[in-house]
Amino acid sequence: MNQRERLALGAQILNKAKEFGATLVGIASVEDLKRAPSFTVAPQMPEYSGVGAREEKKHAVRAGEVVWPEGARSVVVIAYAHPEEQPELDHWHGQLNPPGNKKLIATLNALRDWLKETAGLNGVNLPYHVEKGGIFLKDAAVLAGLGCLGKNNLLLTPEYGSRVRLRALTLDIELQPTGPLSFDPCAPCDGYCKQACPQNSFAEQLYSEEKYGRAELPGRNGNYSRVACNQQMKIDEETAELCAVEGAEPVKITKYCRCCEFACPVGRGR
Fold it and tell me: Do 146 and 139 touch, CB atoms closer than 8 A?
């Protein structure tokens, strides 16, 4: 496949992903991602076993180290908008995926099948968590041109702020990346997200450029605490209410904290 054909395929992928349900979509290079902040810093950080992570590892690798699917050369990153007025998209019914995540999975499955049928390409719909075989989605989204990393340690998109959820699909072909963007609304911001956090997850600097070898750190300057954030997630799980579900047994519905998302003015009112 020549360069013109690759560019045409990339454009088709962007269009098809939206046709299948993605709100935003972009393409990143696997080689670029291997040098991205989280991919180089996370393996040096203390091991994390909080909400969503599992203690046993699928592969014999360091904590935070990504295991790429064989032959992966490009990553298609999609976002699905989770606006404040549709909180049900983010609700966990027991251990079942929330509706928004189901939509992301279905979109990538449809895109993967379409690529196999039309172009003979092999795609892998990645799990969400790195500990379960996924990748660092925020870095991938930044390099794919969806937005930038905000002071709240979340992806910040021009259209929807941080009120999006992400998934990714790897492909065994080198495609033209669609990012990054020249976009950073956080630089002049007073930090509404930090003020809104119920656990003060941004209260102190925990990581330094001297120790980790680069300036791009959790919370942008190394002040985001996964441990403090996880404490709130555990509280959310413990206080989840038992609710009736049509056609099934009552189940606990967990509504995880989104204070830092909702406090951000970027993309508000979409």
Answer: no
